[in-house]
């Protein structure tokens, strides 16, 4: 429905959290924002598991922790880098795992370099990297050259060691404000209690270094051998209901459903697309085109490839940039479905400026949001805003059938509980209706640009659109049988062009006309591991713990006898187990190259400590008539092959590691005004509260929630309160280079003054769920936040900017 800030999914499942011995919860307040996660954490705690929480504030999650560390917002990479350094220096890593399931031994190109904050290949003009040098050394066959031991100076492991040698506990402490002894305690505790689990959400992603922060988690979990294990892994606790489903369906404009790269205008033909993205993307794209264009998609017309509009890489705004592009006149119409950007976008004045330039704005929502009446905000002049606004009242979650996919990749079906009120309609019906009306208007057109509308395969019912038919389209059909695809295996085995799927990772969810596996509610758990295989359906192929091949030893037997996921059965010659085996081929044993691969989505088959570019022609069988094309593979990052610490865009101090390169050099900057620490000395961080939901349109219209959480506030330390002469409940003005707002002060011990490189530093915390409309209006925190985004994910740096505060 709504913007998904941050991609990813959980490697494991909710119930699996009960198998953990230790949790590092850094960047999430799950007690308030993901209470179900907290329920399973508490199950594990009852069995003795340790909980570590790192947060700028002492949260409700922190109140459950064995170890709590208060951190300066935006500095996690500094202490995580120090953990990596410590694990390597003290040999605390899992050597078998590192040698067998990571790229530690792969030799890196001699051209690769890192100097003073920049990796090799940086172009200061475009502020982008040419990542050709972030490559493996290759043999004559194009395969990565492997070192004989982890001591080889060219190997990934040594690159990692050198890179993080700068990250001492002392440097990390000066940057983050966490005492040295506590960083050491966190590192020791997390390495000792296995399997260890890591949770993250916005505290880690809403930064201009968001992706690289999560890469630190991947590196730590690979070093400790925690990925692919029950109770291990990395859990992206995702936000909006069905945000996982909407990312699977490609709500980001660089993707197609199933995480296929979106074609750009440089890829004029299907062959060009395959040449750019690799043979491996050929089948899913053709299958997608077959789902979208049905019988109109044929080999002769490249399965309708020409009907897909192409992206223009020179002008491809990410969502936080849309409103500036609107202001420049790039958009005429906005269909705003289930999102309240007027409250939620950072530096929010950009939103009304953009919306004011549209010809038409359509808002489909269950409440009359701030966005649906943006022109009414104080300070705007409706007489000067020509935008026509249409409001479509939507049916709420229990008034419609359909599937929702949660963070653990679990696709769950639900039925209608109540008929929609009055004129409200399910979103699917509204879109179905709009599409059919548009198609009628285009009937008989010979204009090539109308062809995609006229040729689309659109058949979800005569009057009310059927969500089940949509799910079946995502599952796909096999031409050979004329039936629904029965499993992911069937999809993978079918030749290109003989199978359709609207989202290949969903293959198998509806294996037959009368079977909808998302609708299953079997709660049997014979293993006691919380695998619950008969409850709904997890993509891909109902696997509950991704990369579970890494839970086995060289003979294919479980390394943890208490937590057995899968194993090789030498009698049947088959990978079998309690979970679905995440292997290349179930019949290929642990002594075959395929049977050793735990990370099959990477062409080299191992997890990446160093995110190298790697091209492999052997990963996917090329279709007839199209040459095998090597691919870049998953797991690439665009701002460095290993995470590096950069200060947030607005920061109170110079970068201690390399003052010449203060910030992420690739960050996407949208805001125009920036402040300096002399004028704006404090760091603001923003967060959600349990009583309100996001931009608040729903919860600010619920009287009893307004009663318990009536207004926003600024959390400040007792020191800061004294400095500015305010007490609890006084009105304060919080201001940044971009705007200001007046709220009450909440004077608290939950936030303490930090020592940053010897100097006192204050943090201010503010919830952000208020706006000018609803039963209970309030000032918006996004008046002051900054629109600057992570270069890879496009997530804005909501979690830190510079502000000042004074008595109002
Ligand atoms: N009740 C309720 N539930 C929700 C939501 C809601 O608004 N209300 N929103 C939903 C949505 S869309 C999402 S995306 C999720 C968000 O879920 P969370 O990410 O868990 O929620 P936040 O409160 O945004 O941020 C989490 C914590 O990160 C901390 N933090 C800030 N900066 C940093 C940092 O630099 N480092 C570290 N380690 N921590 C930092 C904040 O102080 C905060 O306690 O919750 C979902 N669930
Ligand atoms: N300062 C600051 N700003 C933030 C964040 C932060 O941490 N700090 N977090 C960011 C995050 S993680 C997110 S996800 C965004 C969220 O930003 P938005 O997506 O703009 O905010 P929501 O309030 O989730 O908007 C969802 C809307 O959908 C409507 N809705 C609910 N159900 C339905 C339905 O079935 N159909 C239709 N048509 N509408 C429906 C709701 O009434 C609501 O108005 O905000 C971001 N903004
Ligand atoms: Mo979110």
What ligands are attached or bound here? ligand MGD, molybdenum atom
- Main sheet overview: 6 strands, mixed
What is the percent of helical residues? 10-25%
> Which sequence of strands runs across the widest sheet?
24-26-25-31-23-29
> How many E strands?
31
Low-confidence stretches: 1-6
Radius of gyration equals 26 Å
Q: Which class best fits the helix and strand makeup?
A: alpha/beta
For the terminal residues, how far apart are their CA atoms? 38 Å
Helix count equals 22
CATH architecture label name of the domain at 5-239:
3-Layer(aba) Sandwich
Shape field: globular
Write down the oligomeric state: single chain
Which CATH first-tier class of the domain at 5-239 would you pick?
Answer: Alpha Beta
Give the amount of beta strand, in percent. Answer: 5-15%
Domain Molybdopterin dinucleotide-binding: 684-801
Protein name: Formate dehydrogenase
GO cellular component, one term: cell envelope
Main location: other
Provide a descriptive summary of the structure in words.
Keywords: 4Fe-4S, Iron, Iron-sulfur, Metal-binding, Oxidoreductase. The structure is a single chain. By secondary structure, this protein is of the alpha/beta class. Among the domains are: 5-239, Dimethylsulfoxide Reductase, domain 2, CATH 3.40.228; 319-401 and 419-442, Rossmann fold (3-Layer(aba) Sandwich); 668-807, Barwin-like endoglucanases. It has 22 helices and 31 strands. The longest helix has 16 residues, at 427-442. Mean pLDDT is 94; it is low at 1-6. The structure holds ligand MGD (2 copies) and molybdenum atom. Residues 5, 239-240 line the site of molybdenum atom.
């Amino acid at each position: 429905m709504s913007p998904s800030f941050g991609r990813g999914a959980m490697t494991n499942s909710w119930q699996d959290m009960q198998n953990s011995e230790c949790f590092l919860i850094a960047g999430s307040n799950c007690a308030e924002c993901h209470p179900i996660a907290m329920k399973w954490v508490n199950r594990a705690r009852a069995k003795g598991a340790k909980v570590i929480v790192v947060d700028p504030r002492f949260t409700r999650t922190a109140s459950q922790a064995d170890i709590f560390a208060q951190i300066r917002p935006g500095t996690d990479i500094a202490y995580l880098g120090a953990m990596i350094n410590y694990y390597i220096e003290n040999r605390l890593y899992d050597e078998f795992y590192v040698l067998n399931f990571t790229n530690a031994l792969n030799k890196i190109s001699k051209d690769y370099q890192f100097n003073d904050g920049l990796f090799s290949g940086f172009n200061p003009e475009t502020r982008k990297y040419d990542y050709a040098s972030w490559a493996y050394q290759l043999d004559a066959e194009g395969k990565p050259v492997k070192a004989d031991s982890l001591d080889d100076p060219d190997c990934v492991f040594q690159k990692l060691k050198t890179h993080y040698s700068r990250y001492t506990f002392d440097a990390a402490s000066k940057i983050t404000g966490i005492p040295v002894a506590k960083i050491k305690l966190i590192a020791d505790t997390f390495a000792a209690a296995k399997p260890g689990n890591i949770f993250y959400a916005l505290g880690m992603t809403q930064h201009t270094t968001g992706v690289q922060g999560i890469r630190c988690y991947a590196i730590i979990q690979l070093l400790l051998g925690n990925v692919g294990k029950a109770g291990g892994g990395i859990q992206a606790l995702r936000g909006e209901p069905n945000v996982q489903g909407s990312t699977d369906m490609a709500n980001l404009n660089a993707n197609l459903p199933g995480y296929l790269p979106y074609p750009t205008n440089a890829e004029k033909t299907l062959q060009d697309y395959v040449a750019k993205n690799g043979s491996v993307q050929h089948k899913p794209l053709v299958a997608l085109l077959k789902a979208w264009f049905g019988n109109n998609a044929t080999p002769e017309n490249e399965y309708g490839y020409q009907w897909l509009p192409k992206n223009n890489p020179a002008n491809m705004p990410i969502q936080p940039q849309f409103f500036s592009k609107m202001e420049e006149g790039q958009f005429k119409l906005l269909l705003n479905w289930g999102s309240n950007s007027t409250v939620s976008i950072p530096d929010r004045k950009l939103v009304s400026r953009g919306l004011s330039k549209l010809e038409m704005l359509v808002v489909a929502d269950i409440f009359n949001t701030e966005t649906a009446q943006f022109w009414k905000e104080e300070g705007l002049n409706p007489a000067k805003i020509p935008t026509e606004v249409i409001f479509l009242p939507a049916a709420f979650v229990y008034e419609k059938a359909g599937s929702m996919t949660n963070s653990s990749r679990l696709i769950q079906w639900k039925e209608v509980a109540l008929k929609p009120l009055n004129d409200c309609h399910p979103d699917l019906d509204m879109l179905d209706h709009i599409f059919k009306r548009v198609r009628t208007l285009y009937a008989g057109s010979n204009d090539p640009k109308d062809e995609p509308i006229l040729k689309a395969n659109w058949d979800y019912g005569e009057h009310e659109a059927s969500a089940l038919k949509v799910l079946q389209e995502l599952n796909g059909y096999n031409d050979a049988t004329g039936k629904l695809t029965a499993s992911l295996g069937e999809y993978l085995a079918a030749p290109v062009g003989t199978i359709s799927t609207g989202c290949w990772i969903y293959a198998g969810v509806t294996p037959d006309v009368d079977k909808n596996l998302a609708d299953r509610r079997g709660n049997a758990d014979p293993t006691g591991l919380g695998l619950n295989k008969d409850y709904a359906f997890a993509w891909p192929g109902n696997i509950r713990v991704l990369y579970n091949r890494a839970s086995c030893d060289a003979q294919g037997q479980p390394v943890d006898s208490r937590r057995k996921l899968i194993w090789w059965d030498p009698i049947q010659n088959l990978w079998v187990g309690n979970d679905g085996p995440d292997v290349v081929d179930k019949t290929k044993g642990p002594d075959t190259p395929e049977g050793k691969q735990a990370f099959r989505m990477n062409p080299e088959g191992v997890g990446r400590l160093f995110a190298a570019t790697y091209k492999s022609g052997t990963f996917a069988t090329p279709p007839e008539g199209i040459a095998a094309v090597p691919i870049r593979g998953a797991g690439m990052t665009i701002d460095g092959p290993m995470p590096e610490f950069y200060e947030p865009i607005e920061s109170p101090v110079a970068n201690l590691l390399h003052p010449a390169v203060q910030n992420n050099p690739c960050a996407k900057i949208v805001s125009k005004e920036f402040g300096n620490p002399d004028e704006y000395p404090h760091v603001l961080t923003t967060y959600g509260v349990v009583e309100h939901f996001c931009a608040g349109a729903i919860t600010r219209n619920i009287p009893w929630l307004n009663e318990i959480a009536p207004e926003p506030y600024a959390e400040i330390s007792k020191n800061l309160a004294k400095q500015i002469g305010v007490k609890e409940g006084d009105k304060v003005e919080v201001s940044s280079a971009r705007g200001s707002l007046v709220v009450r002060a909440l004077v608290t011990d939950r936030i303490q003054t930090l020592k940053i490189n010897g100097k006192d530093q204050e943090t201010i915390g503010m919830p952000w769920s208020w706006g000018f409309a609803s039963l209970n209006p309030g000032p918006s925190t996004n008046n002051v936040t900054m629109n600057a985004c992570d270069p890879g994910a496009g997530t804005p740096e909501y979690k830190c900017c510079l502000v000042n505060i004074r008595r109002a």
